[in-house]
Amino acid sequence: MAFKRRNMSEKNTKQETTEIGPPRKTELTPAVEANRFFKALSGLFGGILAIFNVSIIVMLTTLGFIITDPKRTSQDLATLGVLLVEELIAAFGFCWFGQKVHDEGCALTSALYTDVDWHLLPYTSRKTLLLMVIRSQRPMIIKGWTRDYTLSGLSDILQGAYSFFNMLVAFRSGNK
Fold it and tell me: Could you tell me which of 94, 64, 93 has the C-alpha nearest to residue 81?
């Protein structure tokens, strides 16, 4: 369906109509494609991050449980301590990167609201800015299926590992 626009010229007082064709690719096309890419990437890596989340919790719990065993030698404790630190660094790295992505998304939202004099922009730029503001209302978050990978997500991972660790310690002390 074609829309019609009226043109009134100063010399000609009769109304002329011109048809507006199908929508063209605009300056928003790269932003739309980037948004689709981010969604596809999140969908692809969501399952991988969920498996990573479970494995981190299991590894931290198991390593903590083995390290606290009084029958372990100091060489075992050193080896397992290094593994524990490596797992903590891996979890922190993913969550820190996710926090940075989230913070940059929030900074974009803030900049759109405070730093742009939208009323001075041409009409097409205002429309583009409006679309950017609408999109920025949903922050970018790196997410597994159930957990956000931000620093609060790291806290959730550590709380889950500590809960399972306490359950294993209670099981060990109950079997003595």
Answer: 64
